[in-house]
Design goal:
TIM Barrel, four-stranded mixed β-sheet, binds iron/sulfur cluster, binds tyrosine, alpha/beta, 11 strands, binds S-adenosylmethionine, 18 helices, binds ligand LW54GNZ2, four-stranded parallel β-sheet
Length: 478
């Protein structure tokens, strides 16, 4: 991968690479030494699955093309049963707020339309951009508002702004390079219209009032140590001291380098991603794990990705949940350049959740995402092996900019109505799932009670799907 040695390989950002992509994503059809029937029998017996088993289940058999509906139902049923035996009938969700600090990023991932080229943020640039950078004070104000609403967690993932450094010492190291922009993807904050502060300052600003700070993906941790020989553990130690509580395992995409070379050549490689996650756990943090699928990869890549996560969990035990992120294609370079003609089908989404539940026998929680799938299909995924329905999030930028259409937040009333409609028990959780509160559906209206300032007052009024109501002020970007 390129980012370690050549951080500016994609400088200027978005999609110039895509034109060169045609044909590069042509991976061979998967084959295995396993049969679908044997793989299914192993899954039903709780025998640990191999990568070949997972491939057979994800493909509903590799001996023929397309998904077989009857075989798919058998896989979903096995996964739903496994979910019930492992975690029961509760469906959890967290009262959280998203706070993306900046959209400025030069990494150039071809599946991403969240980022804006960082040069457009420079003081002397007259380029227009739809994005934002927040100061630490602005991040803090968003967290304070959310705390008042009863929120438990702030989830903060951001672009890799060239002026972001871990702390003052990191700024000095980066600035000392002869050509910091091309050698270490660094420009001083004075070059930009808005200074995002340092990573430590942002985390300190967000870590107020007892909120749980969920932030610093492996890619962001790489950015917070670029140009130094600091270990990931040392970087996460410093961030934990600033108030970081857990780290999101995004930037995983597909953890197979031949896929990363196509969709995110500027990102860290699989080994670095794993090293970052291990560093976070060594620093005492919980982590989540994700897979962004439904673009150029094959089912073999999906299965191999699950193996990387399961091995990581065998070694660390630090992963609280697995979050499947179905690729939203509409506004992305991959789609606009014709490299892909859409995302995953609903059947593929269901099989991915199911096989994750069956393969990841050491990760308790599998998440369904209403942001990516919408409410109705999100609920269906809760009957395919998932047991968590993410969080209220209050505002959303990544999926919205990619063309997602399922809105930006959900209220507690929305959650209780949806979860009881499928006959399950709604449960408010902490980020780490260790604190849980079963919600009595009869006792409405419903609001958060686990947040440091929560008193059961409804988070937001009314239905949330259309993005109406006063939520804009809660997630305000500048
Ligand atoms: C936008 S990045 C922000 C954090 C940081 N820049 C990073 O890459 O880790 C967070 C994650 O959003 C997900 N994402 C980005 N674009 C997406 C899309 N079009 N569809 C689904 N997920 C997407 C990817 O998994 C990515 O790692
Ligand atoms: N699935 C998505 C999530 N999931 C993360 C959760 O909201 C929460 O932060 C995590 O479970 C830790 O408690 N977040 C998004 O912004 N978008 C998603 O699609
Ligand atoms: N914010 C990410 C998703 C995410 C964040 C944190 C997690 O722990 C998991 C997933 C997205 O919208 O794609
Ligand atoms: S996924 Fe993250 S690193 Fe990649 S372009 Fe988007 S914001 Fe930047």
């Amino acid at each position: 991968m390129t980012s370690a040695g050549d951080p500016d390989a994609n400088a200027g950002g978005d999609d110039h690479g895509a034109a060169a992509l045609d044909g590069e994503a042509d991976f061979a059809d998967p084959t295995t030494n396993q049969s679908f029937e044997n793989a299914l029998a192993k899954a039903r017996d709780r025998t640990r699955l191999t990568v070949d088993d997972a491939v057979e289940l994800l493909a509903t058999g590799t001996e023929r093309d397309g998904i077989d509906p009857a075989r798919k139902e058998a896989v979903l049923e096995a996964a739903d049963r496994r979910r019930r035996e492992t975690v029961g009938d509760e469906v959890t969700f967290v009262a959280n707020v998203n706070n993306n600090v900046t959209t400025a990023c030069n990494t150039g991932c071809l599946f991403c339309n969240f980022k804006d080229s960082a040069h457009a943020f420079e003081t002397d640039s007259d380029a227009d951009h739809p994005g934002f950078t927040k100061t630490p004070a602005e991040s803090q104000a968003i967290v304070e508002d959310a705390l008042d609403m009863g929120v438990y967690e702030v989830c903060s993932v951001s672009g890799l702004h060239p002026a972001l450094a871990l702390n003052a010492e990191h700024h000095e190291i980066l600035a000392a390079h002869d050509n910091p922009a091309s050698e270490v993807n660094y420009k001083p904050p004075s070059r930009y219209a808005t200074d995002p502060g340092t990573y430590v300052e942002q985390i300190e600003a967000m870590s107020v009032g007892g909120i749980h700070v969920h932030s610093m993906t492996p890619e962001e941790a790489y950015h917070a140590r670029r140009g130094t020989n600091w270990t990931y553990e040392a970087v996460y130690d410093r961030l934990a001291a600033a108030g970081l509580d857990s780290a999101p395992g995004t930037a995983a995409e597909i953890l197979v380098d031949e896929v990363r070379d196509v969709i995110c050549p500027g990102k860290i490689g699989t080994d670095d991603w794993v090293a970052a996650m291990e560093g976070a756990v060594a620093a005492g943090l919980d982590v989540t794990s994700t897979m962004m699928y439904g673009h150029v990869e094959t089912v073999e890549h999906r299965a191999e990705h699950l193996r990387v996560i399961r091995d990581l969990q065998d070694r660390t035990g630090g992963i609280t949940e697995f979050v499947p992120l179905s690729f939203i294609h509409e506004n992305t370079p991959l789609y606009r350049h014709g490299v892909v003609d859409g995302g995953a089908s609903r059947a593929e989404d269901e099989l991915l959740v199911a096989v994750a539940r069956l393969f990841l026998d050491n990760v308790d929680h599998v998440q369904a995402s209403w942001v990516k799938s919408g409410d109705a299909h999100g609920l269906k995924l809760l009957n395919c092996g998932a047991d968590d329905f993410m969080g209220t999030i209050l505002s959303e930028e990544i999926t919205k900019r990619a063309g997602g259409e399922y809105g930006e937040y959900r209220s507690f009333d929305d959650y209780v109505e949806m979860i009881t409609a499928i006959g399950r028990t709604p449960v408010e959780r902490s980020t780490d799932y260790r604190t849980r509160r079963r919600i009595d559906p009869e006792d409405d209206p419903h609001g958060p009670e686990l947040g440091p300032r929560a008193d059961g007052t409804p988070l937001l009024a009314g239905s949330s799907t259309g993005g109406e109501s006063g939520v804009e002020s809660a997630g305000a970007d500048n």
